[in-house]
């Protein structure tokens, strides 16, 4: 079964981070300029402090627009971050993300965050794996009866 490692091999490792003391405006700029939906919040030693996604920003914008420039990332991030490991099975990951209702998962290697995987990456990897399996089965069946 495919794992996070397959996704990382295909997509490469990319992780965009922000500090807890950065402003929401800075976070929006970073999300837009990198074309991503989430930022891992880390301190100066690289330790994980939280996660901030476009959904957190939407909730903030609904009613707090006037504080866009002074509100801090630390006020809106989720501090308890769920993480994955390269050897995690993608079917299990998909279940976790669906049950917990989030679309982003940082991957840790030797305790350090190395990549952010989105639910879109997981769906694409599972789709490719199922297509491959289908082709193999069809080949096996038609070969077997040829
Ligand atoms: P998302 O669907 O990823 O935009 O996130 C929905 C909510 O879950 C937001 O409040 C996020 O801060 C939070 N969230 C997203 N990913 C994670 C994660 N890996 N661990 C904990 N919370 C998360």
Strand portion: 15-25%
- Low-confidence blocks of residues: none
CATH-derived topology = CBS-domain
Termini Cα gap: 29 Å
CATH architectural arrangement = Roll
Strand tally, please?
5
Walk me through what this model shows:
This protein is α+β, with helices and mostly antiparallel strands. It has a single domain, classed as CBS-domain, CATH 3.10.580.10. It has helices at residues 4-11, 24-34, 54-64, 73-76, 90-100, 119-145; strands at residues 17-18, 38-42, 48-53, 104-109, 112-118. It is elongated and about 70 Å long. The mean pLDDT is 91. Adenosine monophosphate binds next to strand 3, helix 3 and strand 4.
What is the secondary structure topology, with strand pairs?
Elements: H1 4-11, E1 17-18, H2 24-34, E2 38-42, E3 48-53, H3 54-64, H4 73-76, H5 90-100, E4 104-109, E5 112-118, H6 119-145
Helix pairs in contact: 5-6
Adenosine monophosphate (AMP) binds next to strand 3, helix 3 and strand 4.
Which structural traits does this protein have?
146 residues; alpha+beta; CBS-domain; three-stranded mixed β-sheet; two-stranded antiparallel sheet; 6 helices; 5 strands; 49% helix; binds adenosine monophosphate
Could you give a quick summary of the protein structure above?
This protein is α+β, with helices and mostly antiparallel strands and 146 residues long. Helices cover 49% and strands 18% of the residues. The protein has a single domain, classed as CBS-domain, CATH 3.10.580.10.
